[in-house]
Each structure stands twice: as structure tokens, then as C-alpha cells.
Amino acid sequence: MRPTTILLTGGAGFIGSHTCVDLLQHDFELIVVDNFANSTPRVFTRVERLADRLIDAVYDVDIRDRQALSAVFDRHSVDAVVHFAARKAVGESTRMPVEYYDTNIGGTTSLLRTMHEHGVHQLVFSSSCSIYGDAGRGPLDETTPARPTNPYAASKWTCEQLLADVCRRCPEFTVLCLRYFNPVGAHPSGLLGEAPCGTPGNLVPYLAQVAAGRLDRLSVFGDDYDTPDGTAIRDYLHVMDTAEAHRVALEHLADGPGMHAFNLGVGSGRTVLEVRAAFEAACGRPIPYRVVDRRPGDVPELVADPRAVERAWGWRATRDLADMCQDAWRFQQHNPHGYAGWARRHEYEGATP
Ligand code: NAD
Ligand code: WQD
112 CA distance to ligand 2 centroid (A)? Predict the structure, then answer.
């Protein structure tokens, strides 16, 4: 049976907010838990406007706070959980590994325990292509051995392993791990998008700020990789496709127990210079760049073999790189300072547990 009431941890974030819109538009009832460490509650004004429906409740709760989390589960009859909440910056994770392990692994065990105590056993988990590390060239399928190379990736891989073990030992659990490759882009309305604090670390938000004149030029991290133009290859996936995949996952939770992991990607790779060219086409402006040293920890290529999820659920990405760049550019134009102009942490009249 399709779950009805969904609790989303980290539902205010980049992927979570887009997923909220899609789920509301498909008649799910939503409860959101987020501590707004990397987001703002004001995003829900836009989410609800886009979906023309209300979220049932938003809680300012840290998922590691089991008492507060338990109070949320006490108050609502939750059918399934989508677990986005995590810290996600690879570079930062090498500088603050304890914080990453605590939030990502500690947060996940706190959530699992609270779910178990409340008889909730259906979970969709945000995993990452970064677990594959330097796995090699060509499309990677889900049997590729995980070789995490930084604390962030290690935290995601540890979560996958503990979720698999819990599913083996407790047959009431069903867990779907979605290994996203590189989600980028924005809602086509220009109302929702990726709004990093400070200077962006990721390619597409950085390109958007160069195009807008907020940053001088893109630094291309290395052009001496063994790729057609020497720059690194990634599998960029539209955030709208990513969001839709969560709805499809929820619709398949009832397929059977156990843990199942799926790659979410387009299945083809683009170089850094190809993405820059696509962004230039989208914004109609030149994007200056210079080549600098490789970024430590970067790998030459990470591309998904996305066929398993298509075989299982019939889901595949439908939007292309031009869509991703056009939508990211529209969001940048409509929100030159991200959500900063209207983002004050405590302004949303959310419920408290
Ligand atoms: P995001 O930072 O925009 O969203 C994460 C949300 O979790 C934020 O709203 C943040 O405030 C919240 N959060 C963080 N710590 C919390 C805590 N202790 N308690 C409650 N809420 C907390 O990130 P995103 O890009 O939307 O990523 C969502 C998930 O997808 C993460 O688990 C991330 O690791 C994973 N992922 C992201 C990407 C990507 O490129 N964006 C790729 C692969 C996997
Ligand atoms: C893309 C490409 C850079 C910025 C990260 C995480 C991964 C997943 C997705 C969470 C790379 C190059 C970038 C710049 C550049 N997230 N680049 N100049 O590193 O592929 O993946 O996000 O799970 O785990 O590692 O994404 O957008 O940072 O980089 O040349 O200013 O662009 O070297 O080749 P990445 P990214």
C-alpha cells in the first residue's frame, strides 16, 4: 500500500524542498524535521505556493535530539520517512570529521531508533555517488565496490552498511538507498534552487555566480585528466528528476522488505568545460575561466549506470544539461543573493514538538 503521511528530515534543503513540492502535488501529507543548519524555514512559503497545498507541520529539530524527534513521531501517524538531513560538503568533512560522523551516522541511528520505537519501518535514504570514490572509468553499477575517500563519503557508506544490517536482522524494515550522482538545476519557476552560504564549492552554483557578475571567473580544477578536453567528467542530474525519483521510491516501498540501493544519474558524463559551455548558452553571456591545479580528492570520472532503477521502477531522468543550466540561471536571476534577502531562521510560524 502506498504510504500517505511522509516525514522528511532535511526537507528544507536543496533536494528536500524540491521533493516537498512534488510530494504535495501528488497528495502526500508531509511532516518536515530540519534544524536549518544549511537552509531556511522561509523556503516553505515558496514550496506551499508552488504546490498550492500546505505542509502539515514543520519542526525545528535536530535529528540527533531523540527526545524532540520522538515527540514529533508521537504527534503524527507517520507511514514512511525520507531521510535527507546530513552535512554534505566533502572538503569541510576532511576538516571536521567528527561533526560529519556525528550528524550523518549519529543522526541516522537516532532516526532509526525513533522510527523503530514508533513502529515506522519504511525509509528512503539519501546516499551518494561519492561512496564509489576512485572506482575507475565507465558507468558504475550498484555492484561496484565502495571505496570512500573522505569522511563525508565514509559516513554515507557506513549508513548504508548499518541500514543493510538492520534490514537483515529486522525483516519489518524496508530501506531504499538512492545514490545520487550530481544533482543540479532548480525548479523551473525560479522560486526554488540551490542557495549555498558563502562562495559556492560546487560547479553549477559557481558558474551561476560568475554569470551574474558576483564572482570574476571560474577556476577549472585541472585540465590534465585523461578525458577528451582534459577536465573531469561527472553525471549531472536535474534536481527535479531527483525529486521525482523520491516519489517513485515511496510508491515502491511496499514491493518487499530489505535494503535496496539504486544509482540516480543520467548515465552519461559531461566535462567541466562542457558544463561551462552549456551554462554560457543558457545565460547568453561569456563565462571567463582559468585552469588551476586539480582539487585534492577529485577523481577523473564518476558516471552512473542507472539501468537498475529503470528496470525496477521504470524511472529514468528526463531533463538534459540545457534544462539544468537554464533553470539554475533562472533561479540565480530571480534570487541574486540566494534566499538571503528573506531568509531569517525563526520567521516561519512552524510548529514546535
Ligand atoms: P542540503 O544541505 O541543502 O539539505 C540538507 C538539510 O538537512 C538542510 O536543510 C539542513 O539544514 C538539514 N540538516 C542538517 N543537519 C541536520 C540535523 N542534524 N538535524 C536536522 N536537519 C539537519 O543538502 P542537499 O543537497 O539537499 O542534500 C540532501 C541529502 O542528499 C544529503 O543527505 C546529502 O548528503 C545527499 N546528497 C546530496 C548530493 C548533492 O550533490 N546535493 C549528492 C548526493 C547525496
Ligand atoms: C564537479 C566538477 C570539480 C567547482 C560533489 C560531492 C559528491 C556529491 C555531488 C554529495 C568536478 C569541478 C568544481 C569549481 C571546478 N555530493 N569544479 N571548479 O565534487 O563532483 O561532487 O557533489 O553527495 O559527493 O563530492 O561536484 O560540483 O564540486 O564538482 O572545476 O569551482 O567540477 O573538479 O570535476 P563533485 P562539484
Answer: 30
Over the stretch 219-275, which tens digit does the pLDDT of each residue have? 999 999 999 999 999 999 999 999 999 999 999 999 999 999 999 999 999 999 999
Q: List the domain boundaries for the chain.
A: 5-347
Task: For domain 5-347, give the CATH number.
Answer: 3.40.50.720
> Which residue of 40, 59, 88 sits with most ligand 1 atoms within 8 Å of its CB, as the best mutation to test the pocket?
88
Judge if the beta carbon of residue 219 lies within 6 A of ligand 2. Answer: yes
Cα 183 to middle of ligand 2, angstroms: 10
Q: What is the tens place of the pLDDT at every residue in 178-190? A: 999 999 999 999 9
Residues 110-132 as b or e (16 or more Cβ within 10 Å = b):
bbbebbeebebbbbbbbbbbbbb
